[in-house]
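RETRY 2/3 - previous attempt timed out on the joint model. Re-submitting the same 858-residue input unchanged.
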Amino acid sequence: MKDKKSSPWKSIQIGFTVLLVLFIYAYGFDVTKVNLEELRSERRQESLTRVTRTLAQPDIITYDKERVVVNSPLYVPCPSPSNLPTAEPSFAYLVIEPACANPGEAVQVEGFNFPPNITGPIRFVPGNDPLNVVALGRESIKTDGDGHFTTSFVLPDRLSDEPQHIRVTISQNVGAPRFSQTAKDTWDKIIETVFMALLATTAGTILAFPISFLAARNLMKPVRSPLTSIALSVLGWPIGMGLGFYIVHQIGIFTIPLSENIFINLVSVVTTPFVFWFAFRWAMPPEEIRIPTPSLRLTRIFILFIAILIAFFGFFQLAGLATNISLSMEKSLGSLGFLATFLFQVSDILRIITPALGALATGGALASFLGRIGQRTAEKNPAASVKTINFILAALAGATIFGLSGWLVEWLYQIGRIEYTFWYPVLIGAGLGLLLAAFTQPKATLPTGMVIYSITRTILNALRSVEALVMAIVFVIAVGIGPFAGMMALGLHTIVSLAKLYSEQVESIMPGPLEAITATGANRLQTIIYAVIPQIIPPYISYTMYRWDINVRMSTIIGFVGGGGIGFLLQQNINLLNYRAASTQMLAIAVVVASMDYVSSVLREKYV
Amino acid sequence: MLQVKNLTKIYDGGVKALDNVSFEVPKGQFLVVIGLSGSGKSTLLRCINRLIDPTEGQILWDGEDITAASPEEMRRIRRKIGMVFQHFNLVHRSKVITNVLAGRLGYVNPAWSLLNRFPKEDMEKAIKQMERVGIADKADQRADELSGGQQQRVGIARALMQDPNMILADEPVASLDPVLAHSIMKHLEEINKSDGVTVLCSLHFLDLVHRYADRVIALNDGQLVFEGYPRDIDDRKFKDIYGRDAERVG
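RETRY 2/3 succeeded.
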């Protein structure tokens, strides 16, 4: 241990640090314009008080009102002969003393037979007409327990020969309390908000789950493959995706005439799973001790392919069935019509994503198949011929990547010159591919996993840094103003942030079970299912809950930019200076967020 | 017959964990690997099923070159080599039966694993193996609810599910008390004697070595310093293996 001596140098350092901190905060005050002068001004305080008081009275409950208006005549100024008409005798009446006065003078107003303990405005009604809606003055009266009050009223500067009036208006609640229109609107919107958050969280979780494995360093680091395999996979993706999309699209077209008939729908929806299951079982025996012959393998692949085609046919038929059912149900369901709409929308989603799924599946399958062939080629052939193959394949793969990127650039910026956006990129890509092939050992493995890891991480980080509010603006343009845009924005943000959180959990699992499962001969997929997933379920649930919580909070403000939900209403009311309504909405948000917080903490405790 | 020829492993940091190690294990032998902590025992065992890729050298098993196997061939080789670990390496949150069934993963079609399904024969086999090591009544408990000795039995049952021709045991009893140590070692011995499974086992305690080993190899600082029978380890050999200042315990 060193003994601590207070050296002058150290003191100077501390002093300097303190000065620096002071300087930083001083600058901060200047930049953020900290100024309490405004707060002290009368005007600010008054409006602050007013707004706070309004906010404290959210517009939730309302009553039917009964208004009692009592008018009593008087002269301003006093006429020479006093011929004041007597007040009409009524249930509640006013006595004015004196019955005439000059402007600026006060008269004594006494009220009888009013409802007890109630307040209301007392105002001067100019002109002869007691029903005149124009009234002057801001005074108010308060009745005692007998419904009686006395107040003095200063007359305004309105002169007339005819009698004018003093009016007391009392409004009284009658009947049972009921929810105000604002409360009803708020309820509608808060439900919309909660479900927006629910859908966004669900969609986000489903997609973030697989992505999180790609962004986990410990899983991706051991993934290495030879250049031949990588190049073939790169070629396999676009070809497979194109092919898959085309085939599934064709199936869709083929299905259209068949999907009109609800009977055909039903039959195919019921039978396709069975056909698929039997084909799948035949092509994928659960356990095999001996290595299958190549011809058996080819047959299996073919059967599997047919089975998958049938499965996609089944998907389209399912979509058709849902559409048909929803159309026929719509009329008979009445208030439950949203179920039919739901079915219709689900069928629409099915119809849209089926070709995309087909494209992805075929792309992945072809890429992995070609990758395996590449692996085999690199292992079984002499180095010299592998090198030659690598040159050709790497050039082709590079050209493909750059050609596709060029096409994307062309689509984004519409340059319109094919040599810049296609031919040059293709040439550059091919050149880079050749260089890569030249500088790598033909049989050496490249860190494919780490490349995928880095790309995934970069995309996740880039998207995560864009706030959901900003994404909502883009989606509002894409799908129009409304909760759907908000849901899409929240969903996208959920995917990227959950994928990152999840992947960090994957990175922190215990390596022992991973090692043990690998040692049994399990492949990567099996290792993930049996060693990784059981370990990450509790944190995944916990993070998903937390994210739902965040999404509820976010969805309350996403409406500010047109993303639907309660934020839209809140912003509107703030802009209209309708603070009582805004207060209702703020209260609703607080209640929902607080109860979400409570529910999620209870669930987390129970399941994690 | 397992032949290890000139095996060398240098880690990324430059640490030489194995230095030109060569030895042979006839089929059905109980071979014990001894040596200080950090002498390369674990690395050696993990090189044999290629959980760690050796830097140089060859491992031949029944004539097949493990070091040159492709991923697909590796899957086929690994499923015939069971492995038992010091810290058991069970998946804590899974049930015992699932942990045992995991031993079949090298055989099961990956597409079926996606559905989390095992064939019926495997289920029956799993129950049989759990009975063999005496934990059949624990099948539906979570793995982390079991005691250390029970967890290691699950580990052995998992290895047995593979129908192994060889078992690699990496200090299987180092985290257990002496009584449990013997019961676990007896299971390994029984598997070795009655099923004819080759066992490579690293151990710390010499009384266990004398009791169970057919043959012994010793590593010191990555080098093979002894190869012979347990009775040949006298005081002089002991000091060669464990260093000048070492004293015998047990």
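The mean pLDDT of chain B is 90. Closing ticket.
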